[in-house]
Amino acid sequence: MIFRTAATSAALAIVLAVVGALAGPQWDPVPVADHVTPETTDTTIGGQVAGAIDAVGTYQVREVEATVELDGTSVDALIREPVDAPGDRPGVVFLHGAGTGTAHEAFAQTASALASAGVVTLVPSKRLDTYSTRYRDYESMAVDYAHSVELLRSRPLVDPARVGLYGESEGTWVVPVLAVQDPTIAFSILVSAPVVPPRQQAAYAADSYLRNTGVPRSVFRAIPRAVGMVLPGGGFEYADFEVDPFLRELSSPVLMAYGTSDPSMPVEQGALQVIDDVASNGNDDVSVRYYDGANHGIRIDGQLVPEFLRDLSAWVQGLPDTAGASPQVAGAQPDQVFLAAPVPAPRWFGNGDLVIGLVVAGLGLLVLGPLVWAGSSLVRRARRRDAPVARIAPGLRWPLVVLGTGAVATMVGLVVYLMSVARLALEYERDAWVVHGGWIAVRALGLVTVVAAAMIVNRSAELRTTRRALARGPRHVDVRDQAVLVRPAVGVVGHLTYWSTIVGATLLLVTVAYWGVYQLGI
Questions:
Q1: What is the distance between the alpha carbons of residues 1 and 335, in angstroms, rounded to a whole number?
Q2: Is 448 part of any domain?
Q3: What are the Cα distances from residue 385, in Å, to 295, 377, 389, 493?
Q4: Residues 6+ apart with CB under 8 A from 344
Q5: Per-residue pLDDT of the chain (522 residues; tens, 9 = 90+)
Q6: Which end of the chain is more exposed for a tag (fewer CB within 10 A), N or C?
């Protein structure tokens, strides 16, 4: 009996492993072959040119409240100006990264530092009525930011011909769009720029964070299955936005800045791609700077790297001389291990609504059986007679209970595990008890559930054999009289409970197999 259960359990586990492997793409990122080599560790911009500009802290900063009129709404803005600086100053409009930045909170340190060096800055609040997690349009966002550019150009201190853009993270997808829409934009600053489409960047970031967290290799298969699917509820069309066509039309100078400890961005690939894209338009004015130990946004321990602020203000003030000044690439050596590449789409689970629907259906069926069984028991007690009898054959009752509860526990455990790993990854922490112990626990729950399923398969086979033997016996033997002995369930309620548990658990087990719980290295 034990051997038979073990053999059946192994067979079912292999079936689930094969189904999980065939149901979606594997994850095998390509190592980076072309690495960036900084010419020097000194990030100073423009050599001797940098000595002729105003340093950060030269001027007091005056803050001016403003309102930017957009199509259909308006947003607050904060203009920072250097006090007593001579006129015809360069200007910078800041474009937000992901989130809900306000004029008074976003870019405060960077905008103030630039203003203290003689650069007029404008930070608008982010427009939110057309921006959400599910829906956003980078080309429309560029049209909105164009109003901020016009407002800054109208300021008395500002030279309209020297106004440029500063984008960070998600904002760097918008900067090239606006610079192409308005060719008079003087320059573009791309900080922590993904460059690749959002879906590719999300997969790359997930891979980097998981590697830093130290999760088991089998967990990585979830990356293309989560990122590559059509996400539940629709929307997210911006996930495949391509900024390359706009970069290829970019004619103004570009400054790129990355932190070498930013795991979310393809720090080498992004720089090389921008250099190649703008060069196709005859534009060689791209400067790239890498800051040692800095993270996303060029920060160390929450503070902006001082050299970044120094270099940024020097590059803006020194234009056009600083646009092509050597070295083109400088700073610490970046280390991008894998390429950000197109994410393969899942085969059978490519639609997130289907994935959610299967889970909901499985949970619903597992709840339905016990509810109907409990309701039937109450009815029988109330009537005391004439109520239909519902029975589950001996040897199947507890395996059914374990199958149903085990399938739910495995699904819940998987969700809790992935959420815990995500928290560790985002906080850049390691915890072997969570990442390895948690994965072992989830897979152990899955194995216990498979053993229960094997017991049901074997017991059902025994009942089928008994039923056939009785059917071949003497004519006076009525198989219906032996129903409770030869069939898994008796009565409508019994059959409903039995099959709802079987089908509901199967849906959940196939789903957790898809996410890698039963991986066997295939």
A1: 56
A2: yes
A3: 73, 12, 10, 16
A4: 25, 224, 228
A5: 788 888 999 999 999 999 988 888 888 899 999 899 999 999 998 755 655 689 999 999 999 999 999 998 999 999 999 999 988 999 999 999 988 889 999 999 999 999 999 999 999 999 999 999 899 999 999 999 999 999 999 999 999 999 999 999 999 999 999 999 999 999 999 999 999 999 999 999 999 998 888 888 888 988 999 898 888 788 889 999 999 999 999 999 999 999 999 999 999 999 999 999 999 999 999 999 999 999 999 999 989 999 999 999 999 999 999 998 889 999 999 999 999 999 988 878 888 888 899 999 999 999 887 887 777 777 666 665 555 566 777 888 899 999 999 999 999 999 999 999 888 887 777 888 888 999 999 999 999 999 999 999 988 888 888 777 776 665 544 544 445 556 777 777 778 888 999 999 999 999 999 999 998 765
A6: N
User: Same structural domain for residues 477 and 431?
Assistant: yes
Q: At 317, which CATH number?
A: 3.40.50.1820
140 and 77 in one domain? yes
User: Is 266 in the same domain as 389?
Assistant: no
Residues 350 and 320 in one domain: no
Same domain, 192 and 260: yes
Residue reference for tokens 């900080």: 191
Give the contacts of 371 (CB within 8 A, at least 6 positions apart). none
- Cα–Cα distance, 477 to 492 (Å, whole number): 23
Domain assignment present for residue 36? The answer is no
Q: Phi/psi of residue 2, each to 5°?
A: -65, -45
CA distance 440 to 434: 9
Question: Contact at 8 Å (CB) between 328 and 254?
Answer: no
CA distance 375 to 461: 29
295: number of Cβ within 10 Å: 21
Q: Is residue 520 assigned to a domain?
A: no
Number of domains in the chain: 2
Task: Please report which helix (H) or strand (E) contains residue 189, including its range.
Answer: strand 188-191
Q: H/E element holding 224?
A: helix 222-227
Whether residue 465 is contained in a domain is answered as: yes
Torsion angle (degrees, nearest 10) of CA 78, 79, 84, 88: 180
Of 304, 331, 358, which residue is a domain's last?
331
Co-location of 79 and 151 in the same domain: yes
Q: Round to whole Å and give the CA distance between 147 and 73.
A: 12
Provide the residue range defining the domain that includes 494: 2-24+346-514
Mark whether 266 and 410 lie in a shared domain.
no
Q: Which amino acid is at 313?
A: S
